[in-house]
Amino acid sequence: MTSATVRVYSNQRTAGRPRTGGMWLRGLCRDCNSLAGENYDAAYGDFTARISAYFSARTRLRLPAAESAPPVSVAPGRVARSVLIGMFATTPHLRTMFPSLACDLQHRRPHIAMPDGATLRMALYPSRSTRLASMAYGLRILTRRQHYHVFSEIYFRPLAWVLSPNEDRLDVAELGESAVSSWPVVDQWLQYGDDVTAIDLRDLCRHGIPTVGHPLREGHDEWVETFQNDTAAFLEGNIPP
Asked: Is 91 within 8 Å of 135 (Cβ atoms)?
């Protein structure tokens, strides 16, 4: 797998020198990228490491299944901010769609409210297949009526995240059920500031966290997928064993 830096010169986009390995996308200025790296990304890495370690131990030691969610600790505010800043990188439209959210993240507000019209959801994702993408829409036209509508998505083991429209803004009777309706909403995580570094995940997701695959990749021949050709970004790959 190779990656290359995207360069824009005289309004012409070109690829830089290819490099082996990794998934890369330049979508943030230096200040915003440093904001995430210095304050939030380490908390996200710690969180995913705890989840991976728990499931690895369950396999070896035959631990009982978690009642609702994996019994691991998380810094909810830092993790949610890390995810959203990454989504602003892959989906530049978010800066104009939700300017107040962009401003709150940029200025490190201690308590952030998710803007009206959007919701952040999370699920467990054990697959080695990865996908980071901007706005996408899918409609299931065979077997049953279902839709998949996201502003941004991150599928990277062991977790999947989507920023999607609020369900009450969609015509469920016409479109069918959302493919992410069973995923827990984690908007409230943004109410926690940087000072909250450890909360039991079971207390944040009391109704459980489903284990999922990517909806458009499972039964892919049943879906019609659409996206904006000139602005959509899709990065896909596989994590080595």
From this structure: yes
CB 140 within 8 A of CB 223: yes
In contact, 4 and 19? CB cutoff 8 Å: yes
Distance CA 25, CA 178 (A): 28
What average pLDDT score do residues 73-99 get?
A: 93
pLDDT-derived band at 68 (thresholds 50, 70, 90) equals confident
Closest residue by Cα to residue 192 from 207, 208, 181, 203: 203
Query: Using one digit for the tens of pLDDT, what is the confidence trace for 183-193?
Result: 999 999 999 99
Q: What is the pLDDT of the chain when averaged over all its residues?
A: 85
146-to-83, 84, 149, 172 alpha-carbon distances in Å: 26, 26, 10, 9
Closest by alpha carbon to 156, among 32, 44, 9, 7? 44
